[in-house]
Fold each of these.
Amino acid sequence: MNSRRSILGAALTGALTISHASARPPGAAAPPPAERRPSTRAALPLVVLDPGHGGADPGAIGAAGTMEKRIVLAIAQELRRRLEAGGRARVILTRNRDVFVPLAERVAIARRHEAALFLSIHADSAPAGHAGQARGASVYTLAETASDPFSAALARRENLADQAGGLRLPSVPPDVQRILLSLMRAETRQGSESVARQAVAAMQGDVPLLANPHRRAGFVVLKAPDVPSALVEVGFLSHPADEALLNRPAWRARVADSLTEGVYAYLGRRVVT
Ligand SMILES: [Zn+2]
């Protein structure tokens, strides 16, 4: 664990709470049995992969009936296999089967485990007016003001998956806590931007990309103040060509290969103090 995390974390203890943090739904990742892990393994950076939707929430449904929740789980599992095989990261999934996990709980899992990186994986429908045209992968980082109306609409709909989600900050935090929190957020934001850049660079040439593939919007699931976070749309199920590709295991493996490269590039550059 790096010292920044421990100092800021200790200073912020009690300052941050997450709604529903205690209500872990069945199937969500449980805290790791840390005492049973070999020490070399525990020292590896932890990547939390977050397959979107699940359970009663299918996510987008393509014209051929493909459900987003199934595609993104398959890709997350592929990605986990590759990252673990590389031996340079530990991996936790926010869900490993077809179960609903609230957005806030997804964020809470990453924070509870002090993850080095949180990567949410989606294959949504493009917002109305773009559904027939928009295709290709894109990567989103958190911003109060969206980079464009397309991304704003995407985040708005995605956030509906959990009406009550999100971080709940104390109403009047002490000044010192506010300053520490803003430092932490600034550093986390830099990490998130770096993850997104590496993911886009890794997919370039291998996977079709949406125009301006790195975009920003207010996704609830990206709001951890202390875990660099990005959301990857691996394609849009509203586009028949993307839907056909995402149904092919070989294609999903290709996407997972690219994302593995991006994650490793990010972890390699990460400054650990
Ligand atoms: Zn989605």
Amino acid sequence: MVSPSVVPYIFLLLFVGCSARPLYPLPGRRNDRNKQPLQTFRAYNIAHRGSNGEIPEETAAAYMRAIEEGTDFIETDILASKDGALICFHDVTLDDTTDITNHKEFANRKRTYEVQGVNTTGFFLVDFTLEELKLLRVKQRYPFRDQQYNGEFSIITFDEFISIALDAHRVVGIYPEIKNPVFINQQVKWPGDKRFEDKFVETLKKYGYRGSYMSKQWLKQPAFIQSFAPTSLIYISNQTDLPKIFLIDDVNMPTQDTNQSYWEITSDSYLDFIKEYVVGIGPWKDNIIPVSSNYLQTPSDLVARAHAHNLQVHPYTFRNENKFLHFNFSEDPYNEYDYWINKIGVDGLFTDFTGSLHHYQEWTNPFASGEKEATRLLHKIELMLSKFKYFN
Ligand SMILES: *[C@@H]1O[C@H](CO)[C@@H](O)[C@H](O)[C@H]1NC(C)=O
Ligand SMILES: *[C@@H]1O[C@H](CO)[C@@H](O)[C@H](O)[C@H]1NC(C)=O
Ligand SMILES: *[C@@H]1O[C@H](CO)[C@@H](O)[C@H](O)[C@H]1NC(C)=O
Ligand SMILES: *[C@@H]1O[C@H](CO)[C@@H](O)[C@H](O)[C@H]1NC(C)=O
């Protein structure tokens, strides 16, 4: 028989236990010094450009949505304005994701530059000051995604992005990319001969980001630094011990700074070399498992070889829409997550739909091992309570 005095507590526990949501600390225990920590027992949910499947990419709203949906890390691409401000933006040109063409005052800013060996024409972010960039509004990249937020949100700076992560009610990591460093260093100059990479690391340090992977400092403010340019990652290696991820492009794309081929940078000898500087690789997922006629082919051994070198693997990009899902997954993004997490064994996933990945993981793998004990106890209490109800 359950003593009546414990019944209110049981109701409280039952309420928490029945809910499909994770067990948050009780409200009184939550404050800024005791935030819910980063989960580290399952593959990382990396919100690619924020929750950009729903809200225009790299905006404050897209990042806040991703945090609300349960992301572990918010991901961003860092470029620089003409006056040297670090900006969250993916493309070197503003054309595809802003309303630049509506701004007649900027009509004469169209340029052609050679970017990674390709002559590219458009409105280049590096030709605009931060003040000018703030006049623009961001729009959804893909026509088949929700257009209702087009024109609502502005471009944000690296500083603003960091504030979003630090202001979150739980620990949310950041995952910024040193984007197009060769081009940015050609186009943008900083006082004192500073390089883009120097400004990038200075910004992280200014907000207290430091510490190696899983160190106490890192767990307080987790960050991964990513780049397709190995030279940039090596250059910053004596400025910060934050963990770095080496991104790997399409098999046909040489690295932008060292002109090495995909086969060179995925060889065992290269993995041996780069592991001194990075904790993992971020390959395009279709390179890990080649695709033909929208069917997966035989998986390569890249994940196994990276793991053998003690390197994590965070592939990109997971997207819910049918046009991005290979037929093997029966048009179901959960099947795709299941395959990559449980069969291929990746350590993190860049997703356009943080909410879907979070639901999938909460459903299949909600608790770290310690929490399992707590759950068992709750089940026991639920059982006791069901008997109590019966006697009522
Ligand atoms: C880009 O255009 C310039 C000027 O027309 C030309 O000299 C250069 O060879 C072009 N570069 C490429 C990669 O096509
Ligand atoms: C880091 O190494 C670079 C060369 O790779 C050198 O120019 C720079 O002075 C070094 N910085 C520090 C802080 O040691
Ligand atoms: C990069 O490497 C490829 C293949 O080795 C070569 O054809 C090309 O000329 C190189 N490009 C540069 C800019 O060095
Ligand atoms: C994907 O489906 C195709 C066609 O049924 C099959 O040949 C292939 O083996 C499947 N790939 C994987 C990795 O399951």
